[in-house]
Amino acid sequence: MRTTAKISSVFNTTLERAFKSPMLCDITEVHSGHWVTPKVTHCTEDATWGRAGGSRKVHMARTPMFKGGEASLDTVLERRENQYWKIEVSDFKTWSMGFEKFQGEWFTEQIEEGRVLVRYRYTLFSNSVVFYPLHWLFTKLIWKSYMRQVLENIRKLAMRKAPYLHD
Prior knowledge:
Layout: E1 2-11, H1 15-24, H2 27-30, E2 40-44, E3 55-60, E4 69-80, E5 84-90, E6 99-112, E7 115-126, H3 132-159
Antiparallel strand pairs: 1-7, 2-3, 3-4, 4-5, 5-6, 6-7
Helix pairs in contact: 1-3
């Protein structure tokens, strides 16, 4: 079973910045924590990150629901330069409410010079029929709200031309 949340926005920046900032900039500035989602503190084993098939282990801060430390594995499933990213978050080391994996997609399309349409979509996967109503609510209310925060963090990184940490 799956549930999906989608948002979109226009970024006043270059196509390259809108495309690369979410995946190649400092993840701690992208995933700054939100309600039940802990802040990302750092990544390890990320030498291949940013390329199709590349991965990284994500570490998160301590919260009442998580002891802190390694939390999941991020994998780049697809990268189409200046158009599309697809990543998967899996191998959860923290309580995941019964979700088995998340897949995030980031689409960029230049509208005109200096203006880029960004479409951001996350699909959350579960094998639990019993928890599906809770998963649907979590995706539509909490996760979508978190996505808005992440999108704004990425907008700020793109606008200030934050350095890329990966290729």
